[in-house]
Amino acid sequence: MNPAADQPHPARPGNRAHQPRELRTVRQTTCCVVGAGPAGAMLALLLARQRIPVVLLEAHGDFDRDFRGDSLHPAIMQVLDELGLADRLLELPHRKLRQATLPASPPVTVDLSRLPGRFPYITLMPQAQFLDFLTTQAARYPSFELVMRANVRELVEQDSIVRGARYHAPDGWHEIRAALTVGADGRFSQTRRLSGLTPVITAATIDVLWLRLPRLPGDPEGATGGIGHGHMLLLVDRGETWQLGMVIPKGSWPQLRAAGLQALRDTIAELVPWLSGRVGQLADWSQVSLLSVTADRLPRWHRPGLLLLGDAAHVMSPVAGNGINYAIADAVAAANLLARPLAAGTLTERDLAAVQRRRQWPTRITQKVTGVLQDRLLARALRTATGPPKPVRWLLRIPLLRDLAPRLAAFGVRPEHVRPAADLGNLRP
Ligand SMILES: Cc1cc2nc3c(=O)[nH]c(=O)nc-3n(C[C@H](O)[C@H](O)[C@H](O)COP(=O)(O)OP(=O)(O)OC[C@H]3O[C@@H](n4cnc5c(N)ncnc54)[C@H](O)[C@@H]3O)c2cc1C
User: CA 4 to CA 26: how far, in whole Å?
Assistant: First the structure.
């Protein structure tokens, strides 16, 4: 029997912090994961693989969101390989990024082909497809359940201990009670807000505009871009389209909009002249999204019964494109450290603190390094259009240092490895 199976239950007002709810169901599981992004989907897969009952709640009806990162770094492929899933993932449509030319004058080329391991490239795959893959793999284990359109709006608390979450679904309110609730609900985490844990926010000096244009036969491959006039444009090859990320000085979006869509088209065409024939396809501001760049981190990732992971615990700067990498690494570390106490029913807050201790310093170091890159080098590049300063360019000529940056980006500061599952029996066919 699925331990999380529906058990319609009358409302119990004593467990409620807010207005009494008419609950359609109250169910019990071991781990309730809020948010089926990379962190939540991976954690749920890893726990289900250890036969731990897990319910994954996702607010949306599908995974299809455009405003997302699509890059799977070698560290993630390594994790999937340890799970025996890498080759299966690579059977799905994807692109391999083996080289990136950073817009600078002169351009800086980053060669990923010298990276160690089986996956010396960045796998580009729509995040929706990746999440669908992870949850499909998780669904092979009977102890996994995914609930879509489950918008978590309340935590269940008893004696200051988090005992689960309440979500709103199209048919009304539901409650999941759990030994552990994990908030993996992203940069605008509702779980974090409800928990009272408050992040330290670091101001950034840049914002990013996010848009797409068609990619045509004969275009370059991989990642490329252009710099000048106070802007930097990064292009990532998404097969039939280019994903454009236009770095702009923080707060300059209102002026840019006021200048009109034609001015944006002209800027794109100036930065990357071979796009000039297709900028006309940018017909409406709805095709352009603003990513307000911030970095934040929680000084404390846990409360009794609750753990926050991924962007909910630390939003990474988009500069190194490593948010997914760190979200997945958090999930792997959490599964490694928590599976045993969860299975034994002995979980305490000390176990949750151990996850934070393991993952906090790698994320903080990375946030610091990317913060310097973002605020010193990128902001300088926007002002002067010259790219990295001379000393940095000289350093990049030294082979060891030249290879260190892509290596750090590819594997993160502390790559995590999957511990073997105690027992992998009981797979659904
Ligand atoms: C424009 C943009 C470009 C990016 N590019 C890259 C890139 O190229 N490479 C990279 O590595 N990273 C990139 N990132 C960052 C990356 O997408 C995130 O770091 C990563 O997705 C974080 O994973 P997560 O699982 O912690 O959270 P998320 O991916 O944000 O997932 C959170 C999930 O929780 C769900 N949710 C939210 N609230 C609730 C609720 N109340 N109840 C239930 N479910 C809820 C959401 O619907 C979502 O599915 C980019 C981010 C943005 C915004």
Answer: 10
**Ligand 1 contact, 69 CB (< 6 A):** yes
Atom index in ligand 1 nearest the CA of residue 289 equals 1
Nearest-atom index, ligand 1, CA of 167: 42
Q: Which atom of ligand 1 is nearest to the CA of 72?
A: 11
In degrees rounded to 5, what are phi and psi of residue 67? -85, 65
Whether 96 and 4 have beta carbons less than 8 Å apart is answered as no
Token pair in block for residue 216: 């045509």
149 lines ligand 1 (CB under 6 A): no
Distance CA 117, CA 317 (A): 26
53 lines ligand 1 (CB under 6 A): no
> 380 alpha carbon to ligand 1 midpoint, in Å?
28
**3-class SS at 52?**
coil
Residue 86's Cα: distance from chain center in Å? 19
Per-residue pLDDT 10s for the chain (429 aa) are 333 433 333 333 334 455 567 999 999 999 999 999 999 999 999 999 999 999 999 999 999 876 677 889 999 999 999 999 999 999 999 989 888 776 666 666 778 888 989 999 999 998 999 999 999 999 999 999 999 999 999 999 999 999 999 999 999 999 999 999 999 999 999 999 999 999 998 877 888 899 999 999 999 887 888 877 677 888 988 888 999 999 888 888 999 999 999 999 999 999 899 999 999 999 999 999 998 888 889 999 999 999 999 999 999 877 777 899 999 999 999 999 999 999 999 999 999 999 999 999 999 999 888 887 777 666 666 666 555 566 666 666 666 676 777 788 888 889 999 988 654 444 443
Structure token digits, residue 169? 């679904």
Q: Which phi and psi angles does 21 have, rounded to 5°?
A: -105, 150
Does ligand 1 come within 6 angstroms of the Cβ of 123?
Answer: no
Q: How far is the CA of 64 from the centre of ligand 1 (A)?
A: 12
